[in-house]
Structures are given as structure tokens and as C-alpha cells.
Amino acid sequence: MNKGKLYIVSGPSGSGKDTVVGLVMQKLGDESRISVSMTTRQPRGQEKEGVDYFYVSEESFLNNVEQGNMLEYARYGRYYYGTPKAPVEKWLEEGKVVFLVIEVNGGENIKKYFPDAEKIFILPPSLGVLEQRLRGRGTEDDDAVSRRMTIAREEIKRAVEYDYIIVNDLLDDAVNSVISIVEAQKLRTANMKNKISEVLENA
Amino acid sequence: MNKGKLYIVSGPSGSGKDTVVGLVMQKLGDESRISVSMTTRQPRGQEKEGVDYFYVSEESFLNNVEQGNMLEYARYGRYYYGTPKAPVEKWLEEGKVVFLVIEVNGGENIKKYFPDAEKIFILPPSLGVLEQRLRGRGTEDDDAVSRRMTIAREEIKRAVEYDYIIVNDLLDDAVNSVISIVEAQKLRTANMKNKISEVLENA
Asked: Maximum distance among all alpha carbons in chain A?
């Protein structure tokens, strides 16, 4: 069986990267998996263990880091966030299409572990639209929105480090773009060698 | 404007490569072009000048070869066949998606001129199906079919030299596979750099 493929997906807050990946996974069904992060913070609102995050104690988190179980991790404020290595390795071994939605900085470290991973950057159609989307959430005040916009500008400058860039203007188009990348990747000769032998050996 | 992209499409006789590319071009519309070969043989049946081939005299053909106007050429039996360079260069300059349906051998030379070209191999689902298709044409006797099958086996072995392999089992799937490759290619960061500046510069 062919090994699976890892897609690292990043984009500024408000780019819609989680929504895009969620819909792509619905289309791909059982052939796809998404990496769930580990965190030391408490669940908020509707969040669910194993869906939004794996919630662990700081001791357990740092233990995992020490034992080399994390692909990457970072501390934001008082809390740790990181990506467990084992599930991603298992899914790739099983031939799955694996998505990892992650901060721009986190992606670099992961590419070191998985050099074959493809990096996709989700770009908003414009900074104006991005700002509207952030305000539309209604969860953040003006200061928070303008801080996010500053970060967004810095992140967008780093889009050139990615393999693919998708503009999330119309959601359906963005979803289809990811699907095209996944489908094209499967047709790469390295993934189709078995098929050549199959055709030659079976009359 | 971004430069266009050249796709070299090969596959054994009976793989359906011409049909697949024809339908892909219908879907892509005006953004796509197909390279038309030049030949010294006479038009047959319904064939049309500039659609099936450019029909020229041997003198004119060899003149073009001498002047370096051909991407590749070969002699089959008494006739010359070749690929004119100028239209492909012009279309790429215009940003078009350009298809070149060509023998396995011809593809190599063209990749030397256009190293960015992507090579797609169209594979039949099995040798049995390929043989049925060739017989189904009703235009060739047993000897001709078995000669074509021998050539097909040799050509299929060289599919590993291609960038992408598409199995033409269900025609619609094969067409969509080519479309995925074309769409994914457009999303490559090298083709999207303008978009990054656009987003950063327009608030």
C-alpha cells in the first residue's frame, strides 16, 4: 500500500482554514484524518476532548515533550499547545490523507520530520475582508482585531514559504482547490508505480 | 501575467489519450490550446488542415527542421511528423494551458526545451481492455493489433519516466484527473506570488 500524505494548512486567523479543511474532510470521508492538538488549558464552551484538543496537565504535556512525542509545541500565555507525533505517523502508515492545521511557525518544524508534507497557505481575498470577518465574529474588541490584523500581515508575507496558496474567497472554490491538490498528488508517478506493474502483469 | 503551462500527454494507442485531452479542453475552454503536428503525408478522410495536422511538402518540412522551428520530429515509413515550436512558445507566453499529445519518444526532446512541462501518461486499465479497444475500432487486422500490443507493453514500461499517471478506466474520471492536475498546478506558490502582494497592498 502507498504511504499516505500529510498536508500542513496555515493561514491568518479569519482566513477560514478550519472551515475549509472541515469541508474537505467531509468530501474525502474515511480516507482523511485530522491531527488534534494537545493543550494544557481547560476546555471552553462546546469544546470536546479528542475533537478540539486533547486536554492534559502541564506535567503530562512536558513529559510528552521530553520523550520526543511531540512534532512541535509552543507556549501561548500560560498554556502549552502542541502536535502529538504518534497519530500522524500511524495514519500516514495506513495510507490516509492527513491534515494538520497549524500556525505559520509550527509548520516549519513539522516539515523537518515529514519532508514529503505539502504546505498549503489559505489567503483571505483582501485585508479588508479579513478584518470584516474578524469583526463579524463579534467576540473581539477593536484592539484585539487590530492586533490580529498586524499578525495577519506578517503571516501573509510568509505565504511564499508554502507549496500551494489558496485564496478563500468563495468557500466552495477553496474546498475544491484543496481537493484538486490532493487528487493530483495521488496521480504522481511515485504513487502509481504499483498500477503500472498491475497493468503489465494482468492480461 | 503568469506564464502558461505545458502538459505533454502520452500513452499507448487505444489508451484514449486524444479523447481525454479533447474533453479536458472543452472543460477548460479558452484558457487551453492544443499543439497541432506538422506532417508530409496527405489528409485522410475527414481530417482538416490545422485541426488534425498541418500538411506540408517534404521540402517545406525539412526546411523547418533545418531552421530549428521544430520541437521534435520523426519519420514513420515514408512520412515525416513533427511539432512546430512557435505556437507552443506563443501560447505559453500568453499564459495558456497547452497540451501536446505525443509519442513516448517525442516527449523527452520536448522536456529539454521546456523543462517546466509536466508529463502525463494515460494508462489503460489492463492490457485486456486495451486489446478489446483496438479490436473494437475494427480498422486493424489481428497482426496489426498484436504489433500494437507489443509496442504498448514497451511504452507502458516507460510510464515511470512521467510525472503523473492516469488510468483511463472511466472516461469522466480520467478527464477530472487531468483537470485536478491543471488546477493544482495553478495553485503552486510560484504562480500565486502576485496574489500575495495584491492582498498585502489593497486594504
From this structure: 68
**Contact yes or no for A15/A122 (Cβ under 8 A):** yes
B196 and A159 within 8 Å at the Cβ level: the answer is yes
Rg over alpha carbons for chain A, rounded to the nearest Å, is 18
CA atoms within a 13 Å half-sphere pointing along the CA-CB vector of B136: 10
The one-character DSSP state at A83 is E
For the beta carbon of residue B78, count every other beta carbon within 10 angstroms. Answer: 8
Strand-strand pairing, A5-10 and B32-34: unpaired
Q: What is the ipTM of this complex?
A: 0.89
> Does A23 touch chain B if contact means CB atoms closer than 8 Å?
no
CB A127 to CB B167 under 8 A?
Answer: no
Quick check: A128 and B202 CB within 8 A? yes
Give the helix/strand (H/E) hosting B53.
strand B53-55
CB nearest to B167's CB, from A126, A177, A195: A195
Is the CB of residue B47 less than 8 Å away from at least one CB of chain A?
Answer: no
Number of Cβ pairs < 8 A linking chain A and chain B: 116
* Angle of CA points A146, A151, A157, to nearest 5°: 130
Specify the pTM: 0.91
> Which residues of A are less than 8 Å from B181 in CB distance?
184, 187
* Among B188, B189, B191, B181, CA closest to B7: B181
Query: How does pLDDT run across A17-54, given as a tens digit for each residue?
Result: 999 999 999 999 999 999 999 999 999 989 999 999 99
